[in-house]
Amino acid sequence: MNGQHLLIAGGGPVGLVTALLLEPHFDAITVLERHDGGMPSSRSLQLVLGERGRHALRCCGLEQAVIDRGLWVRGRENGAGGGFHAYDEDGGRILAVSRVVLQQLLEEAVDTRPGIRRLDGTAVESVDFEARTVEALTRTGRDTWQYDVLVGADGVRSAVAQAMLGEEEMTLHKMDLVYREVPVQDPGWSHEAFRYWSDGEIMAGSFPGQGGQRGLFVMHPRGMEQDLFDEAKLFTRFPSLKGLGHGVLSALKAAPAGAMGSKHCSRWRQGQAVLIGDAAHAIVPFMGQGLNTGLEDAVALMRQYRSRGRAGHEAVLERFVRRRQQPAEAIRTLSDRHARHLLGQSTVTEQALEERSGAALRSMGLPDTYASCAFSRTRFDRILRREWRAMGMDAPVRRKVA
Ligand SMILES: Cc1cc2nc3c(=O)[nH]c(=O)nc-3n(C[C@H](O)[C@H](O)[C@H](O)COP(=O)(O)OP(=O)(O)OC[C@H]3O[C@@H](n4cnc5c(N)ncnc54)[C@H](O)[C@@H]3O)c2cc1C
Predict the structure, then answer these.
(1) 368 found inside a domain
(2) Which of 81, 193, 264, 382 gives the lowest tally of CB atoms within 10 Å of its CB?
(3) Which residue has the CA at smallest separation from atom 29 of ligand 1?
(4) Same domain (yes/no): 112, 24
């Protein structure tokens, strides 16, 4: 391990957790982050973490700190009535935590480690995989970094992925829906439940936050802003939101609209560079597993380094990719399907899986698919296959991954 340098593109949660977990295996780690302080605000204010994400934080010694700043959520409540529906018959809970708070905690943890250096305001522009160099635009101009290993944790629009993959090797699927979220002061909704409203076209939802501070998000088709917010049709569709007052409509209209979609990359590695987190496999947010999956990647990469023996970096990274591609593909399938279910766009088979697989799995003494994803670390591809088997069907042919 002589003078080995790990370069991480992207100082989001996956990049920072990767830095913390891989610190013992490198002499120096540099994290290049495009943003110069602050975070983009077009995504959710709250993130929910299940067992996968919490386990990664546990491995960094940060789980309790995040729990202390989050709120446990036991189930969901339909805002239009219909009562409380527990996520898990065995009492499993997910942890809702502010995205900004999580980011701050991770940055603080990284800044205490002498082996890790964070460089904000540094946007990766290109990678030379032969020479193992990265060129980035910094506050003062352009600079070049040499790496032994490069981890591309630079999110869905990853510059590392762009440099690594041809057009035919990467698929980005954008939904017609956009996402907006604004903070709302305690409207008196349960602090233990995710509250949601859906009419098949539009979905609104709210996770509880500490001190009664919650977010209210709305997912709606592009171009509907005037109808929903100026003409207050959001309240016509979901009358129980009226109590929030008209101010929430103008706030929602002014909030940045974030795109939602998924990303598939057929290859995640080139030489000693590898993609991880959203850079490799973004998913639609309906199962709340995007970050959980990215953090699980970071743990998987750490494991490969722990059991490395005499293997070179390429072999270690390749093992990581082989271990993670199928689970990432499976949670993408599950999340897409769940999105279609919530939006009333399921096929007949999907409808049956969404509505009946839970009972079929429970009759076999197994948790349902949501609970397995959120409260266990069972591989997502195993969960998917198990569900199809419980319904007496053959799982769909697996998408080919390199
Ligand atoms: C509306 C919404 C709600 C969600 N809710 C949940 C949830 O509840 N639970 C969950 O598990 N997941 C959720 N997700 C998914 C989650 O946000 C992502 O999976 C997660 O943020 C991915 O982390 P990451 O570190 O891989 O990427 P990012 O969070 O995107 O971080 C990438 C970082 O790289 C930086 N970067 C980008 N380009 C460059 C460059 N060229 N050079 C240097 N730095 C660069 C970015 O500035 C950023 O800091 C949600 C997503 C959305 C859109």
Answers:
(1) no
(2) 81
(3) 12
(4) yes
Residue 47 CA: nearest ligand 1 atom is: 8
329, 332, 338, 343: CA torsion to nearest 10:
-140
d(CA 32, CA 30): 6
Put simply, whether the predicted model's pTM sits higher than 0.85 gets the answer yes
> Are residues 147 and 31 part of one domain?
yes
Of the residues 259, 282, 305, the one at which a domain ends:
259
Q: Which residue has the tokens 């973004």?
A: 282
Q: For the chain (length 402 residues), average pLDDT per consecutive 10?
A: 86 98 98 84 84 98 97 93 88 94 97 97 98 97 98 98 97 94 91 92 92 91 94 96 95 94 97 98 96 98 97 98 98 93 86 90 93 97 94 71 51
Q: Are residues 52 and 134 in the same domain?
A: yes
| The last residue of a domain, from among 331, 354, 388 | 331
Give dist(CA 127, CA 151) in Å, integer: 11
> Residue 250 in contact with residue 229, Cβ under 8 Å?
yes
Tokens 């302080």 found at = 37
Ligand 1 in contact with 152 (CB < 6 A)?
A: no
In a domain, 321, yes or no: yes
Mutate to test the pocket of ligand 1, among 150, 207, 278 (most ligand atoms within 8 A of CB): 278
